[in-house]
Structure formats: C-alpha cells, structure tokens
Amino acid sequence: VFADGSDLRISSCRKCISEQCVIVRALRAAVSNLSDHRNNATRVMQDFASDFHERTGHHSKMLNGFESTMQSLSTISLHQSLISVAQRSGRRIQTLLDTVPVERENAWAAQCQTAHSNLLNRFSDLETSFSQVGNISVWDDEARGDLDAEEKTIDTSNEVETEANKISQQQAQRLDQLTIDHARVVQVVMGAISREDSGANMMVASMSGVVDSSSDSSAHVPDKQNAQTAFSVLEELSQASKGIIPSMELDDNILTALMQRVADDKTNIMRRMRFRLRQISVAQSTIQRVLSSHSVLRDALAQQSDNMMHLEHIPEFTSSYRHFLSEVRRRRAYGIAVTSLAAEMIERMASMRVDEVKERERFLRGPGQHLMPAFFDIFAPTLASPPPLFAPHVPAMAELDTLPDVGTDIDFAEEQVVSVGETSGNNSISDEERNRDQIESVKSRINSVSMDAGDKGECAASGDDQDQQGLIVSADETSSNELMETYHEQRVAAEAERNTLAYENTVLRQAIERLGGKSPRTYVQQSRAKDKINQAEHAKAADKNKRVTQINSSLESRILSLENELAIERKKVDQSMVLMKRTTDEQLSETCDKISHSSFEVGDVGLFMPTGRGSGGKRTYLAFHSNCPHRYLCTESVDGTPDYVLGRIIYQAEKSAGPLGSKENPFGLHIGTKFWVLTVEVIKIP
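Above: the chain sequence. Below: its structure as tokens.
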C-alpha cells in the first residue's frame, strides 16, 4: 500500500509541476507581448513629446507676444506716398496697425489661445495615463516576482525529481524485502505444518497396527524440536523486518507533505497568474487608450499649427512691409529702365536713319548721278528711295501709374537712419553727424555708380561725336542741328544706362535682404557699439603707446650700446679670421707636397690615377695607395678626363658593393667588397 501510494503521490507531484511550468511559460509570453506594446508606445510618445513641446513652445511665444506685436505696429508709420494713396481713396491709414483687421485678429488669437490651453491640458492627461504604463520601477518589481516564481517552480521540480525518486526507490526496496521475508515465513510455516502432519499420520498408523512394530517408537511422536526451530526463525524474521513498516510510513508522510507543498505552490501560481493576467489586460487597455489619445492629439496639434499660421502674419508683418517697399522700388526701377532703354533704342535708330539719309544723298549727288537708268530700274529699284521709317510700338508701362512712389534706395537708407535716431531719444551731436555721414556715403556710392555709367556714355558719345564730325566735314551740308541731335542721343543713352544700373542696384539690395542681409538700422546700431568699443580701445592704446614709447627709448639706448659692442667684437673676429687664414695657408703650403698612400683621412692629399670607365660611362679614378685599396674618386669632384687628379680629401663615404651592374656597384667589384668614395678639393690637374 505504501509503495503504491508513493508512486501515485510522485506522479501527482510531477503533474502539478508540469502544469505550473505551463502557467509560467504562458505568463512569460503574456509579459513579453506587453513589453513589446509598451516599448512601441514609449517610442511613439517620446517622438510625439519632442515635436509637441517644440511646436507648442513656438505657439506660446507667439501668443504671449501677440499684444506687444500689435502695439509695435502702431508705432511704424507708412510711407508718405502710401498715406496719400489711402487719402485719395477716402480712407485714413497712417500706420501698419491701420491696415490690420484688429478685431478679427484678436478674436482669432483668443480662439487659438483657448485651443492651445486645451492642447496642453490634454497632453498633461496623456502623460499621466502613460506614466501608469511606463513606470519602469513597478514593472521591474513585477518582473522580479515572476522570475522568483519561475525559479521556485524549478527548485520544486528538482526536489521532486531527487527526493521523491529516492523515497520511491527505498519504498520499492522495502517492499522487496517484505516480499522475501513473507516467502520465507510461508516456507517455514509450511515446513512445520508438513512435519506435524507426517507425525500425526504415523501416530494413527501405530494405533491401527499398520506400522511395523519393529520401527522406532520415537518416530511416531511429533517433532517438537522442529516446531521450536520454526518459531525461532519466525522470531528472527520478525525482529529483522520490525523497522520496515514504520520507515515506509514515515517516507509516505514525507511524500504527503511534499505533495501538499506542490499543491499549495500550484494554488499560489494560479492566483498570481490571475492577478498578473488582469494587470496585463488593464495595461494593454491603457496602452490602447494612450495610442488612441495620441492619434487624436496629433491631429489636434496639426490643426492648431494650421490655425497658428494665420497669426504668423502679424510677427512677420514688419519685415514683409520692408520687403514690400523694396519690391515697389525694384518694379519702378524696372519700368523706368525699360522705358529708358526703349527711348534710347528709338533715338539711336532715328539717328542712324538720319545718317543713312545723308549717306544716300551724298551717293546720289556724287557717283550715283553718273549711273545708267538700268541700275535704278532693274538692278536696284530702291536705289533712289529714302530708308523706311521705323516707328516701333512700345507697350505703355501702365504699372508705373499704379505703383506708389516710395523713393529710391538712397531715400530708404536715409529714412532708416533717421528712424534709428528718433527711436533712440537721446542722440548726441556726434551721432547726428555720423547719421549724416552714413547718408552721404550711401548717396555717394550710388551716385558714383550712376556717374560712372554717365562718364562711359559721355566717353562713348565723345568718340561718336568725333566720328560724326568727320562725317559732317565730308558731307555737303552741316548745321548746328546735327550737333544737337548727337548730344541728345548721347544724353539719352547715358540716362538709359544710369536707369539700368539703378534697377540692378535695387535688385541686388532686395536679394541681399532675402538672403538674410542686415538692414541699415542694424548696421547703425552696430556702428555705434563699435564706436564705443573703439573709443575704449583707443584710450587703452594711448596708454599702451606711452608705455611702449618709454620702453622704446630705453631699448634704443641699449641697442646703441650693443651695436658699439658688436662693432668691437666684429673687428676682433675679422682679425682672428685673418690670422686663421694666414695660419691655414701656411699649413697647406707645408702639406701640399705630401701625398698620402698608406692611409686616407679627411685633410690628406691623394693622387688619383685613371683605371678605366665606370658604369655611367665616365672615367674612373683610383687613389695611389700602399695596402689601402678601393679608394675611388667621386665623379663630381672632377670635370673632363684628366690624366691624373691631385686633391685634398674633404669627405669620404664607406660603402659595400652590391650586384654587378647595379648602382650599388659602379666599379665592378665583387659582391660585398667594401670601397670608399672620396670627395676632394682639386689641387692640381694636368
């Protein structure tokens, strides 16, 4: 019973543990799925939060500064020409604020402010909802709890596989021992019974006289001694198996407790499974609500951005107004330039026609009067006719009549500088002079461009005038009208080129402003700041110059004394050089006739004799020697092919011969042979 019970309890424990493992794996899969959804929601929220804060920050800045921006528009006056145009149309518009529909813009700003506040509130709610899902500490605690439950299940499984199997094996061994003891007991009892039966049978036979009287009477008596032996054996077996049943009962109790603990663990895991699945379900629902709210809030933010685009006109209105004035000036300059160029072209063509008429008349009155009629009738029928009139139709620049005259770039620069002076409130006389200087500098730059164009036109006109004078002298009739026409044509050309340059100047100014160039107001403010810095720097420089002057005076006196000392030392050096040269010449004169042959050092005199041609085709010279072979003369030390060279060694290089025919072996030596190349100062050659 105990053995069978242990097997049943062990199988029950294994079944419970397998079910616990299934629960743990299912919980792990659910947590992994939730983690993926949570990570996706976190990534989406991070991207959206950065974009939301960036946009709403820009919107908040615009809405908070809306009132001040509207008030600043009331301080910016329109150009006088624009005010005049508005007065002629019956409206009173003097500032930029007068052109703005204030009530409508204020109502739209209030609506945008309300929507902006709602967006911030909804985003705060969204962050609160997401914080419940994205709380990392809570999820880490739960993950540690799941890991602990999984580890506990593994430990219980290992315990069942070790302890329970051990108990099961012990129970089986005890059952086998009991079975063996039972078989021996049966054997002993059956043996005792069989012997008693045989003794009883013999007694019956003796009583009936069947048994032989000669048999031993003792054989008929029951063997009492064998019965005692059987009881002794049974007593021994009983004593030997006395502890088996209690041990089996104790192990059965252990298995019962283990089974109960496994069942309790399964119950706890089931409860945790229900709690965690409920928690995961709530988290999944929260994530879905967060993602849904994110989509709605993202669309609301996009709509709010579109609504705020209408309010962006107000902060950019001042800059747009400046660009408007620049655009009007450019268009007017374009119209004037086109009109001037057209007038110049028409004037030039008219002048060319006048010259052509004169040339035709000169031809007809001169060589043409001797031509035969066939030349006029057949060959050139239009030979005697005047040149055709050319009267092109130039389209009227109607746009010039509709565009207001807002002045030129010079006037615009002057207005900007004056406006800076008015806003400052407390300008000194030096500031006013600086403003006038800036105005004059701008005017001079533009006028210089125009005057250059005029000079070019006048120069061209003067050259044309000389040519025309040559034609006029050769013509038959000259008059002052021709001179006036030529001068008028030159003036028209110069005016057209001047207007063209003015238009190009306007285009360049507008392009600079579009590329982010600074307005004249900014340059004036920067100039003032630089002037203050320069004044402080000039004061520092003056103090520094004083110190430098003092230092320079002391240094100059020091330099004079050093120069005197240097002159004295130079004289001493020159004297020493003269003595050294004299000594060297004497030594050279003493050693010039001594030719080295047993050793060669720098300063020795060597005699080099030709030995043939080297690898480069030049003559090879070997030093005259005694047991000092392979001293060759450097080919750069001698020019030509003298019969011998006597020179003083100034440098020697030790080398090792390389392969034959290579640069490392120019003298045809055995590989590895050491040789020396001597550079000498030639003393004598034949």
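The chain has a mean pLDDT of 75.
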